[in-house]
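Deliverable D5.2: sample structural annotation.
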Amino acid sequence: MPHTILIVDDEPEIIEMLQLFLERESYTIVAANDGQEALQRLQEHTIDLAIVDIMMPRMDGLQLLTELRLTNKLPVILLSAKSEDSDKIVGLGLGADDFVAKPFNPLIVLARVQAQLRRTYTFNEEEALPSMPPTRVGELTLDHDSCSLLKRGQLISLSAIEYKLLHMLMSAPGRVFTKKQIFEQVWGEHYMADDNTIMVQMSRLRDKVEDTPRNPLYIKTVRGLGYRFAKRDELHA
């Protein structure tokens, strides 16, 4: 069944260009010119992924992303004419899954779309069969069937990226994973020293896992190398 993609941009030529390339790959396209119109389209259609411009009238892309993340986990790729890291950091912090700076090669956007759909939908299908027993470390239980976390019995929902990060770390307590290993295994792309992406996602994950994110018990930073998950004997020390 073909995936449906929502394109949100106030420039008709951007929508037309992306629609041309995506429809060639058999994707169904739904378009909106601003955030308010996009929210209406989300009520009318089952959307699998959204491509959202940041700079738009009435409701911009960051406002739309904030509203979207209140109820929906669908992957979101942000577009922006700005090249500053601040846009990328803010967008990822609000729950975006990827970021493409304008002007862009539409083939790059197509590749990012395919990667996000593969991670979000194909990955989850592959993980469901065969069923895996939950991974337990300390007061945390990672459920692989629902891709969710139980912390002292409280259910915590995870995005696809957060689940994959936590799965990697919890599966090998004490092992140090380099930033390159994390990026290439979780994002499935060649590592290009994209430290901001990893840092923002780790910060979001700590907010969910840790009682005190600034003094983490579970997810440890190994300066100059990467990250590791606390060993079981550390948690009972």
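Annotation notes: The first helix runs from residue 12 to 24. The longest strand covers residues 4-8.
The annotation will be released with the project's public dataset once the embargo ends.
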